[in-house]
Design goal:
Length: 335
């Protein structure tokens, strides 16, 4: 047995406090009635119609309802089931530029924020394809390996930040090599090929070179690249963490512009397509449709183990106890 949300169980620690509050309320009620009736000797006049046993049952029922409601919210699971998941023969790596220039705000709210949003929209538009996530600045990093769990990839997208860059700069060629590595080796000779693709979201800046060699490697591996350019021709200054803007040695603000050349070249050489990020974000749908049309190696199925949800059992007990508390009157029978 396991709980999908075990942190909820900490709420059970409040049960003794709730019981103490209920007992304190009952004592306070009796004292108030005694004062109203002229003393404890006359308390029976006001309490003989109420059954203390029924009140105790109602209190216990309320505590049981709260306890099992908390257990149900923690989502108990036991018993393992299997689920067949069908997927297409497409492996995709989303490659996102997280260099400091991606903090520029010539694309609202920022280049990186727009990139992560478009990546999330693309994940929603995909079917059962395996997706991985690679980020890069001065050095690339595999953030999430290929997975069928698109929601997990979205969680990693939410954490992307230009402030977390350990090595400044923009090494686009190294990033492409890392993305190709994440896609794994190509098909063995004599076997049916499986479509592989990269979706690159970047402002196109490249500080390290070596792009032609990386492009040839992608082409030889049969990897198709789709590029989305973030930024404008006019460009924008680069914000710093303290709210100021990055400046050069002469003290002038550094302006970063969209460099479409490398992105167009990569898409053209790998038989992919290039798009400039638009406010309508229609490019995401076009990329999704193009990915769906890739010649995949048919459909395959994988078996995934799923824990069986059992929250219905404690939830039923909680509802039954709550109904008992509501339906049971605290008056004595015949009173």
């Amino acid at each position: 047995m396991r709980f999908a949300a075990p942190q909820v169980l900490w709420a059970l620690l409040a049960l003794p406090l709730l019981a103490a509050a209920m007992w304190g309320a009952a004592v306070a009620r009796r004292r108030a009635l005694a004062r109203f009736g002229g003393g404890a000797a006359y308390l029976a006049r006001f309490t003989r119609e109420a059954s203390p046993h029924r009140r105790a049952v109602k209190a216990i029922a309320l505590l049981v309802a709260v306890a099992f409601g908390v257990v149900a919210a923690a989502r108990p699971q036991w018993g393992a089931g299997t689920e067949t998941v069908s997927r297409k023969g497409i492996d995709l790596v989303i490659l996102i530029d997280t260099s400091r220039s991606m903090a520029a705000q010539d694309v609202s709210p920022s280049r990186l924020a727009r990139a992560t949003r478009e990546a999330a929209l693309l994940l929603d538009a995909l079917g059962g394809d395996r997706v991985g996530l690679v980020t890069f600045a001065g050095r690339p990093a595999l953030v999430c390996p290929l997975t069928l769990d698109h929601e997990a990839v979205k969680l990693f997208l939410d954490d992307l930040d230009t402030e977390a860059v350990s090595v400044p700069g923009t090494a686009l060629a190294d990033a492409l090599v890392e993305a190709a590595k994440a896609l794994g080796p190509g098909p063995a000779p004599g076997t049916e090929a499986k479509a592989r693709a990269i979706v690159l979201l970047s402002d196109g800046e490249d500080h390290e070179g070596g792009l032609d060699q990386a492009t040839r490697a992608l082409r030889q591996s049969g990897i198709v690249l789709y590029g989305i350019g973030l930024g404008t021709d006019a460009g924008a200054p680069i914000p710093e963490a303290d709210g100021a803007y990055k400046r050069d040695d002469a003290g002038k603000p550094v302006t970063t512009k969209l460099e479409e050349g490398p992105l167009r070249h990569l898409a053209l050489e790998t038989e992919g397509r290039y798009f400039r990020a638009s406010t309508s974000e229609a490019e995401v749908e076009e990329i999704a449709q193009s990915l769906a049309s890739l010649d995949a190696a048919g459909s395959t199925t994988v078996m995934k183990t799923r824990w069986v949800e059992r929250y219905q059992i404690p939830l039923s007990i909680a509802l039954a106890a709550l109904l008992l508390d509501v339906a049971l009157a605290d008056r004595r029978r015949g009173a």
